[in-house]
Amino acid sequence: xxxxxxxxxxxxxxxxxxxxxxxxxxxxxxxxxxxxxxxxxxxxxxxxxxxxxxxxxxxxxxxxxxxxxxxxxxxxxxxxxxxxxxxxxxxxxxxxxxxxxxxxxxxxxxxxxxxxxxxxxxxxxxxxxxxxxxxxxxxxxxxxxxxxxxxxxxxxxxxxxxxxxxxxxxxx
Amino acid sequence: xxxxxxxxxxxxxxxxxxxxxxxxxxxxxxxxxxxxxxxxxxxxxxxxxxxxxxxxxxxxxxxxxxxxxxxxxxxxxxxxxxxxxxxxxxxxxxxxxxxxxxxxxxxxxxxxxxxxxxxxxxxxxxxxxxxxxxxxxxxxxxxxxxxxxxxxxxxxxxxxxxxxxxxxxxxxxxxxxxxxxx
Amino acid sequence: xxxxxxxxxxxxxxxxxxxxxxxxxxxxxxxxxxxxxxxxxxxxxxxxxxxxxxxxxxxxxxxxxxxxxxxxxxxxxxxxxxxxxxxxxxxxxxxxxxxxxxxxxxxxxxxxxxxxxxxxxxxxxxxxxxxxxxxxxxxxxxxxxxxxxxxxxxxxxxxxxxxxxxxxxxxxxxxxxxxxxxxxxxxxxxxxxxxxxxxxxxxxxxxxxxxxxxxxxxxxxxxxxxxxxxxxxxxxxxxxxxxxxxxxxxxxxxxxxxxxxxxxxxxxxxxxxxxxxxxxxxxxxxxxxxxxxxxxxxxxxxxxxxxxxxxxxxxxxxxxxxxxxxxxxxxxxxxxxxxxxxxxxxxxxxxxxxxxxxxxxxxxxxxxxxxxxxxxxxxxxxxxxxxxxxxxxxxxxxxxxxxxxxx
Lengths: 172, 182, 407
Prior knowledge:
The structure holds 3 protein chains of 3 kinds. Chain A is an alpha+beta fold. Chain A is 23% helix and 15% strand. Chain A contains 4 helices and 6 strands; from the N terminus they run H-H-E-H-E-E-H-E-E-E. In chain A, strand 2 (90-95) and strand 3 (104-111) form a beta hairpin. Chain B folds into 2 domains: 1-83, NADH-ubiquinone/plastoquinone oxidoreductase chain 6, subunit NuoJ (Four Helix Bundle (Hemerythrin (Met), subunit A)), CATH 1.20.120.1200; 131-182, no CATH class. Chain B has helices at 2-29, 33-53, 57-81, 85-90, 92-95, 97-114, 116-119, 124-127, 143-154, 156-177. Chain B is globular, with a radius of gyration of 20 Å. The termini of chain B are far apart. Chain C is mainly alpha-helical. Chain C is built from 14 helices and 4 strands. In chain C, strands 1-2 form a two-stranded antiparallel ribbon. Chain C has a two-stranded antiparallel ribbon with strand order 3-4. In chain C, strand 1 and strand 2 (66-68) form a beta hairpin. The chains are: A alpha+beta, B mainly alpha, C mainly alpha. At the A-C interface, helix 2 of A face helix 1, strand 2 and helix 13 of C.
């Protein structure tokens, strides 16, 4: 720290305020020169509706089911996700399908309006058949539209969320 | 139009004076203490206007700066922080009335005595004008210069005595207001 | 050609319209500049668009799943392609701000003292705007009306409203009345937070008025005048009797500028000293209960007094209507007065341009400081005022008197 000899000088002349002003002035100048859509830019703002955002890899968006290479549903109805879900938003109905050894979910319902995006379901899944994707524009105009099912309805578990007029994300 | 403007300039003193009296009326007759202070402030600003209309611009602006800007703020502080309602119940203000009326009458008489030429005499305009010659300044000096020459050259001793009296009042206030612990 | 009284009145009214128009446009622009400057300092972009659904947004076209808006917002988006021009994105925001304040509901609390509640914003506003009567934006005539101009042909249009010979005192006196707007508004709201904020603010303004006035005494002593135009001209162009006095003057003006600006920040309740509206402890300070037009009166008066402080600082310490600050202009004039280059010779003459540029720079400094310096605590504020600034200004005052004696 400053010795007593300098502390008087620091009292009389506000060096620290000068240092702070220099720092902020530097950033002001930099951003003023580079506040455009060029390649080089200092500012950290993403102009979101027009420019797509890049999300962090572990971002937890909407629940989505995954199909394997043959276009077959990977889920085997072990019910782990349904059991572990703290808000009980997942409902699975076990069934059979021609030419498939493992059980096939004839119903997989997901009520997004109560989902807390905790990712327990994905962690509990032993077959990597569900993920939380990177969709974050999940708003809808009706409460019913939050219900996701395998087929039919407004949204299904395989397709991305239908985007609204403004909605854009990096995934689609 | 021209005549009207010139006359308006002449009657400015009267207008400001009446407004100042109005402000003083608000000061005395209003129920709320803060309204009284606002009336006082208005009165002070109008007195400054009176000075300005007499071409004593230094005094006018000093009035604005010292009274309106400084002293009335402190009054307002005291009035806002002190609870006046409990004094009103005790009737402290009413006990002073019988002493106050004769004193005010005496003050009015003294005022009339001092300014009798201004009030009743013929030389009304002259008495109401600030004369630079009064403080030993020549005519072409500005207002501020005339006042400062008067204060710091011709009447330096009374000025200093006045400041010492004010200092005494200040020290006395501190001694009275200080609590017992040292 | 001297104007008759009526002509004089007409010219005065025109001047008032011009000055008030200047201030009234500068204030909303300043709020926009505040968003932008603070945004840029904090590595953000500030306001970049306006009028979401009103113009163009519905007519937007989608291209590869990105939506581009047309109309006004499309123009804003297009402006963002260039570096410095992109600062003007979001400029219509100031109109939107003004419209919002004009159309907001005007709420008066039921327990408030109605008359005082209405009076105090007006008082703050009147005090902040009357000050401009004594500020000289240009030392002499700004221009002359052309001879064919109806009724006013050949008459001068001055750059100042009045040429009071106690102009500086007038400014200080009227500006000191502005504190009533804050205190009375705080009291009339009949609410705890405004009262605390108002008391803080009043104590702050009353105690910082002392160093402010003392620091302005330095130019008064150096020039021996109280007239705004004469002071600013003489502070810029007085030729010192010898080098030592010249250096002393320059140093004194340099230090005085910083001291005066610091006190000015406190007088206008701006950020390092904005304890009156410390939102984490006092909600919004004295204007917590105010809304709509009454709030915007307080708002306008704060920004107008910022302009006043900037004008005073640039007139008395930064060389006023001349190019160079801190009394360096005579040296410049000595070298370039008879220079063959017309431009260099022009820099030796007074111009309203320099004055306005200095005002704009100081307003930028106000915003810059707001983005940099954190708020002082109340006891620190009083310490800075009474233990630091007042002794500093007293020493400066004595040095100024010595310089005056030497000259």
